[in-house]
Automatic annotation (TrEMBL):
Keywords: Signal. This is BON domain-containing protein. It holds the Pfam family BON. Residues 208-242 are annotated as: Disordered. Residues 49-116, 125-192 form the BON domain.
């Protein structure tokens, strides 16, 4: 069986992660919460690409003059959010240019604040707030948590994902009511209910095909094993004379 493109992309992502382990630039919410690819509204390929984009963004930014900056990179279907703090407007513009140059990046939302880096206490509070937002969304039956990413910096809650207009309104309202959230910034890609249904149908077919391939491969392996066992039995059995 040939290695899939997804496996290759995931390998590249892990390699990049290791190379940026000591970098001051942080990879976004993908590093904070693990999301099942099967439950994600993005395709498996898009999930892998976003991981690569986040890792590459962190690596490229850490190799420039942003060593003292606090930057978080978060990608959803190639739309990248830069959040945190940076030292100047010139550096902020440079960060946008660097990330835009990365393959498969569609758009860059540069929400970096030109100010001193936030304190460790602030970042810990932001992490707790983000977890509370995710928990609140998880409790609501009208939205799918795996269709979005939640990032919180200095109490500002950034929401990325591909959702319907109705979902966007519900998600934003829920997030705004969470203690610790001072502002909600929506960075959604809005699709129609019909487009959502089409996506879900395609995803369902892809999952069925993948399941069929796995079943077929298992059947083939079992067939080989049975054949080998049969041959062994024929050799070991001999007629018994009384």
């Amino acid at each position: 069986m040939k290695p899939s493109r997804i496996a290759i992309l995931l390998f590249v992502t892990s390699s990049l992660l290791m190379s940026t382990a000591c970098a001051p630039v942080l990879i976004g919410s993908a590093a904070v919460t693990g999301v099942s690819v099967a439950a994600d509204r993005r395709s498996a390929g898009a999930v892998a690409n976003d991981g690569v984009i986040e890792a590459k963004s962190a690596m490229h930014l850490s190799q420039t003059n942003f060593a003292s900056s606090h930057i978080t990179t978060t990608s959803y279907e190639g739309n990248v959010l830069l959040s945190g703090e940076i030292d100047s407007e010139a550096s902020k513009q440079k960060a946008t240019e660097i990330v835009k140059s990365i393959n498969e990046v569609n758009k860059v939302y540069n929400e970096l604040a030109v100010q001193a880096n936030s304190s460790l206490t602030t970042r810990m509070n932001d992490s707790i707030t983000a977890s509370k937002v995710r928990a609140a969304l998880l409790d609501n039956k009208q939205v799918t948590l795996t269709s979005i990413k939640v990032v919180v910096d200095r109490g500002i809650c950034y929401l990325l994902g591909t959702v319907t207009q109705t979902e966007a309104e519900i998600i934003s309202k829920i997030a705004s009511r969470v203690p610790g959230v001072v502002q909600v910034v929506r960075l959604f890609t809005i699709i129609t209910p019909e487009e959502l249904e089409k996506r879900q149908l395609i995803d369902s077919k892809l999952q069925q095909n993948e399941a069929a391939e796995v079943t077929e491969g298992t059947t083939e392996e079992n067939g080989k094993l049975t054949s080998e066992e049969g041959a062994t039995e024929e050799v070991s059995v001999s007629p018994v004379k009384l």
